[in-house]
Amino acid sequence: MLQRTARTLARPCTPRPRRARVASRRLALLTTAEKDAALHAAADAVLAASDVVLAANSADVDAARESGTEDSILDRLRLTQARVEGIASGLRQVAGLPDPVGEVVRGSTLPNGLEIRQLRVPLGVVGMVYEARPNVTVDAFGLALKSGNAALLRGSSSAARSNAALVEALRGALGAQGLPADAVQLLPSEDRSSVTHLIQARGLVDVVVPRGGAGLIAAVVRDATVPTIETGVGNCHVYVHAAADLEMAEKIVVNAKTRRPSVCNTVETVLVDKAIADTAVPQLLSVLQAHSVVVHGDLPGLVPATEADWSEEYLTLDVALAVVDDLDAAVEHIDRYGTGHTEAIVTSDLAAAREFTARVDAAAVMVNASTAFTDGEQFGFGAEIGISTQKLHARGPMGLPELTSTKWVVWGDGHTRPA
Amino acid sequence: MLQRTARTLARPCTPRPRRARVASRRLALLTTAEKDAALHAAADAVLAASDVVLAANSADVDAARESGTEDSILDRLRLTQARVEGIASGLRQVAGLPDPVGEVVRGSTLPNGLEIRQLRVPLGVVGMVYEARPNVTVDAFGLALKSGNAALLRGSSSAARSNAALVEALRGALGAQGLPADAVQLLPSEDRSSVTHLIQARGLVDVVVPRGGAGLIAAVVRDATVPTIETGVGNCHVYVHAAADLEMAEKIVVNAKTRRPSVCNTVETVLVDKAIADTAVPQLLSVLQAHSVVVHGDLPGLVPATEADWSEEYLTLDVALAVVDDLDAAVEHIDRYGTGHTEAIVTSDLAAAREFTARVDAAAVMVNASTAFTDGEQFGFGAEIGISTQKLHARGPMGLPELTSTKWVVWGDGHTRPA
């Protein structure tokens, strides 16, 4: 039997990252069945706490409204009984996903007889810094727990009451299952100091994932001494190639822009090949305008574009449009302005499709498909913790395996290494 | 045909990281055959430049000797004709390794017919900060080139002439092959400013790998804004369990300490289980002393230990030894003082072996084997860029795949995502 009790029990006065670390040692040794039972218990606890959670959320929403928060953000902040039920069923869904911990990634028997295996193990303590949506609190907890990690959550102050009510329910469920409540801890959100402590808790926190706007992410990455994973900034392009099916291009551009303009995989710039610009540009403008999209650019009749139109995300029903000389120029434009999230080409030319996918440097490159498909659920991961736009460790939608590290386990029978 | 010419040619006055980035775009598109031909050409060029390299090295060694550098470091710095030949054959060996770029890591056809594949792609620009050994200059170039990356190398000032001669040979070979010479660039080593520029060239440099002592690594990690991979600090333990075969334990401890005391996988602390201490401790002391190892600890007759004996590497023929109550106490000691490199248990008890490997959090955990086996060549990788002691991206010996990222390539035929 494995020993499952940590010797050193952390007390409440111990700083949160240290308590998370102690909890993480136990989480790493849990069986899949134990973790899944805890996830179902947590789902039950969230449902049982619905009234408390909804009352807390109501106070958050009222305070945000009074301080002049815009409706779209209020909508993300607001919980309803149906949304609480959705949050709980998200936990049950994570319980149904395969457990990444213990998976043998590689392994072999060396010529000297040593047996080596590289196993997936939890990262340890995962920090999240995120914006208003309270569902992220529970989602992040669920994904962290399933992958054997303790979670340190720093949500937005506008959701403080909602998050506190949710985390109290989760901690109660863990305690009732005999698991350490410190597997999930909410950090204070009154000021930025809790973010600073989190991202500088080197040796205690194994990774911090910022989820939010470009400003939040840049600040976290700049000041962090713990490893971070950048997520979510998507200045995505659709390049309508000379050999594009124009009807297909229209459908893809409209879908990529209008399906949910505020998310990171929405298209922000359309690049049209010069060879077909005379017909393609008017058609695209017409269909975009029919969908209430405001088009920015240097062409006559468009809202005049500045540098920011090319380099920043709109996240609204706006899009920039430029004519480019050829595929080379399209790749160069993307190289200059893209954020490495998702880039797409529309073409019926195989060589152009191969060249575009080979040369464009991004987490996802689409051929004849909407940028909206870059998403953990769409890719079949069941859930996602965010979309990484960096190259180290994880790139693109991050599911459970991306919340793990590895460990080499080596078995011998007295092996020593010759000089 | 893929377009292989970068539009924007970088000029020599452009800063090195930007020139590396331009070069990396071409390297990413090279075929395996092109890269292997370049590696063989580079090996030929290093051999052809032997006289120049040896003369430069001689000047480095003389200057280092005059400034009072100790013999062991002079030995690492010194090149001979045989060592130059070894460096060249190292490049040919890398040419013989499998190319990681283009490997399909995962892939599926989604229910909607979208075909998704996750491919290995180069990281882009890889920075290395390292100490005296000039062979690292060529090894790092070779591994970076084979994995499609440009290399920015910042070696030690004591090896400046040797490194300059080697890099000139490598750049000449690349140019003669029609490849960008900026695929390898040596950074000035007179002062620390080139390190600072390298580790803060965010957006141009994709990863920096520091290789050297704990001080160097800590400074790089603290000041970097580009992602880093920590390597090489190994405060490794061997735990001689109550059910250990004592003869096996002696052989493993002696091998792990004396084979090459200055490398990171050497054992620095031996933990002996209390249950067998009365016989095991005298036997271990006797065999260690017979191998000229100085033993530090709190037991009578040992060199008295301070906190540093437990927390720091000796990298010499010294070792610390402590008696621990049981497996729990051994794991706690390792948890407190280990650096997450390699930890070993000697035992014939299966449950103890399983518990130790499950609970100890390190890049490699050995059962009945010397810590000296944590090494890329030993693990069958053919070559290694370093041994990562961090959890993100790579952990343990890093070979060619660890110098890559991934990209999702998605093929559709007009797919749009439903609301």
From TrEMBL, chains A, B:
One annotated GO molecular function: glutamate-5-semialdehyde dehydrogenase activity
Catalytic activity: L-glutamate 5-semialdehyde + phosphate + NADP(+) = L-glutamyl 5-phosphate + NADPH + H(+)
Primary localization: cytoplasm
Alphabetical UniProt keywords: Amino-acid biosynthesis, Cytoplasm, NADP, Oxidoreductase, Proline biosynthesis
Pathway: Amino-acid biosynthesis; L-proline biosynthesis; L-glutamate 5-semialdehyde from L-glutamate: step 2/2
Compartment(s) of residence: Cytoplasm
Ranges in a coiled coil: none
Domain Aldehyde dehydrogenase: 20-291
UniProt function note: Catalyzes the NADPH-dependent reduction of L-glutamate 5-phosphate into L-glutamate 5-semialdehyde and phosphate. The product spontaneously undergoes cyclization to form 1-pyrroline-5-carboxylate.
HAMAP family xref list: ProA (MF_00412)
Cross-referenced PANTHER family: DELTA-1-PYRROLINE-5-CARBOXYLATE SYNTHASE, GLUTAMATE SEMIALDEHYDE DEHYDROGENASE
Family designation: Belongs to the gamma-glutamyl phosphate reductase family.
Protein name as catalogued: Gamma-glutamyl phosphate reductase
